[in-house]
Amino acid sequence: KQEVTQIPAALSVPEGENLVLNCSFTDSAIYNLQWFRQDPGKGLTSLLLIQSSQREQTSGRLNASLDKSSGRSTLYIAASQPGDSATYLCAVRSNDYKLSFGAGTTVTVRA
Amino acid sequence: DAGVIQSPRHEVTEMGQEVTLRCKPISGHNSLFWYRQTMMRGLELLIYFNNNVPIDDSGMPEDRFSAKMPNASFSTLKIQPSEPRDSAVYFCASSLGGYEQFFGPGTRLTVL
Questions:
Q1: Distance from the CA of A6 to the CA of which of A19, A22, A76, A97 falls in 20 to 30 A?
Q2: Which is nearest to A37 in space by CA: A50, A21, A24, A51?
């Protein structure tokens, strides 16, 4: 069974600082890895998807890396803004259809 | 483009009542997922449909839960009878094949 861990559980940074969010998974036989953002009381917004053959994906200030062999992914958010405050979820798709989710990292960016 | 649409957004009901949650996936997507999110257990996959056929319902908690997908543009999740421990946020998500999953806004269910 795939286990996904996200550390830290919560993070508070001043505006402008870069954010580094970590995700680890136990089974390296993955199809892809997806990072989501969830605002309080809202649904999940897909941020980035990395296929198992890729090393990284970038979208604007967001960059996600994937090291499949070591079972790790990192989401970098450059020059954080108060609007980046949310919970960030990592989800790993195994070689079937299931997404296994981490518990998330709750980010607070202080103005 | 419309994303995944769910209704109702909020549902408050009394224990023992039947609850029906609805989902319209993104047009053209052939996979549909129902998830449940609670503080204690996080996000859990309840059931997965591919091309309108239920492929995996191993996450459905018990016989009180049932799901249908009569066509490619509509799915329902029914709880009968509902219990307080069913209180959670229920999400529907869709995807095209094995690619990116897109989530709906969720239905917040409260069973009194």
A1: A97
A2: A21
